[in-house]
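Hi X.,

You mentioned you wanted examples for the new student's onboarding notes, showing what a folding record looks like when two proteins sit in one file. Here is a clean example. The first protein comes first, with its sequence line followed by its structure tokens.
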Amino acid sequence: MPEVRVDPLTGLRAIIAADRATRPGGGLSAEPAPQPDPATDPFLEGHEDRTPPEVFAIRAAPGGADTPGWTVRVVPNLYPALDPSSPEPPRDATPDLFTALAATGAHEVIVNAPTPTGTLAELAPAQVRSAVDVWRLRMRHHAEAGANCVHVLVNEGREAGASLPHTHAQLYALDFVPAAIARERERFGAHATRTMGGNLLADLVQEEVRRRERIVAIDDEAVCLAPYASRMPFQLLIAPRRPVPRFEDDGPSGAALLHDVLNRLARRLGASPPLNLWVRTAPRGADHFCWRIDVLPRLAHLAGLELGAGLGLNIVAPEHAAAELRGA
């Protein structure tokens, strides 16, 4: 029978309605995405002149900026959503109704690999670790520069919003904390108060490991599970085995487990699905927090319920998704 579940980290609700998977058109699979065309790929090694000048890169051997030989490369977004020189907009005559602020901050592209590869799952594990290490370095750079919130994300596939097929991450360094992240910060703080210092995500992971029914995989660094109130089919969460507030701090990054579970998804679905993933790290003002990586395959369309009511409708119970991925 359908049931409504509440996400302990976000407070958001989702309807788990597994019987809807049996309706016509309810089967879930993925088709291989087109590979980047080397002729037009601006992120391909050797095409450094097709991007803005790099701000950071890892090279196997010493070399000049904006030259081949890199393994991970960071450039400003050519079409930035944030700009450090963004001017303050004119004040509206009715500011209690119409408020606008300068879109200051930074918007970077982190090219995960020099080869024309479409997904993180297709990369070698060592290359994924190198890419994730650079995510961490750039997050640390912007946090130390004063950003109130740093958000790193990966969009794979046009259905998930990717405009270029070459695997890359985007970094947003924000001078404010978005409402959804501020709400999570509050829930971590409330849990710590209620439990005399407990960490919300660490306590959640501990209980999930004890129950085992939603665990997908565990390695030396991290745990992957299908969240209790998953909003979409095969949604996944990766968290460190021991709580660490900020992803940019030294310690485990979960890169090996991320590569593992992305390949499990590809094996289960027939190909790497279009997906969004992001790194949640402690925003400014968080006294209690733990980083995590959220993976959201885009196997179902967001429709009127999700967009109009903010309510997830998931046709694959997370317990079933975890069992299938454990066997993949």
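Then the second protein repeats the pattern, sequence line and then tokens:
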Amino acid sequence: MTKIIVNLDVMLAKRKMSMTELANEVGVTMANLSVLKNNKAKAVRFSTLEKICEALDCQPGDILEYRK
């Protein structure tokens, strides 16, 4: 079971931004963004995380959550 949860959908809703807009702004494919959003990613590059945080004006902790 994955213990790191990606709350990308929450931040997208708060910022009223679509997945398509975020994918274009970050420079990743919709497929890759969907993998991340659906908690299927095995890893995320810091550079990608940085761009997501920049686009959503948030901190990494707003997106990533650890659950026991």
